[in-house]
Amino acid sequence: MREKILTFIEKNSRVDLNELAVMLGVDEAAVINELAAMEKERIICGYHTLIDWDKAGVEKVTAMIEVSVTPQKGMGFDKIASGIYKYPEVNSVYLISGGFDLMVIIEGKTLREVSQFVSEKLAPHDQVLSTKTNFILKKYKDHGTVMAEPSKDERIMMA
């Protein structure tokens, strides 16, 4: 039952719990208890709303920052990652494989604000070797949801 609940709420966290219970063939109390247990175990870590800030008329700049670091002896990447994710500007930090170590996703109001974060807060960390900032210009799909308007076929039909 856990996997089915998680799969469903990952796409729609606002689902009516009674409706979910009916789909799973259990009573609503069982679903509520299972959700509470998964929250307590931190299997469910939070509930989020996906917003198209451009349509809301709010200026936001999102950047994906590639960070190369020197892992600390006995701590690996965890200590440097925790030092980074504590900043309020930081939305996400991922340890990844490839040409760099951490992917840091941040938001700011302007390109300058994001650049200042990188140069004044991120780059000065002793373990940070290099950073590369990539600005997100447009989101086409985010968290499984298509953000872009469907393109219209503007070709003229010939008979």
Can you tell me about this structure?
The chain has about 160 residues and is α+β, with helices and mostly antiparallel strands. The protein folds into two domains: about 40 residues; about 90 residues, Alpha-Beta Plaits (2-Layer Sandwich), CATH 3.30.70. The protein has six helices and six strands; from the N terminus they run H-H-H-H-E-H-E-E-H-E-E-E. The strands form two sheets. The protein has a four-stranded antiparallel sheet with strand order 2-3-1-4. A hairpin with a 6-residue loop joins strand 2 and strand 3. Helix 2 packs across helix 3. It is flat, with a radius of gyration of 21 Å. The mean pLDDT is about 90.
Question: What's the level 1 CATH class of the largest domain?
Answer: Alpha Beta
CATH topology of the largest domain: Alpha-Beta Plaits
Number of strands: 6
Helix-residue proportion: 25-40%
- Give the count of helical stretches: 6
Overall radius of gyration: 21 Å
Task: Identify low-pLDDT runs.
Answer: none
**How are the strands of the biggest sheet laid out side by side?**
2-3-1-4
Please state the overall shape, judged from the principal axes of the Cα atoms.
Answer: flat
Mean pLDDT: 90
Distance between the termini: 55 Å
Give the tally of structural domains. 2
State the fourth-level CATH superfamily of the largest domain: Lrp/AsnC effector binding domain/regulation of amino acid metabolism (RAM) domain
Major sheet characteristics: 4 strands, antiparallel
Q: In the CATH classification, which architecture of the largest domain applies?
A: 2-Layer Sandwich
Secondary-structure element order, N to C? HHHHEHEEHEEE
Beta-strand content: 15-25%
Strand-pairing-aware structural class? alpha+beta
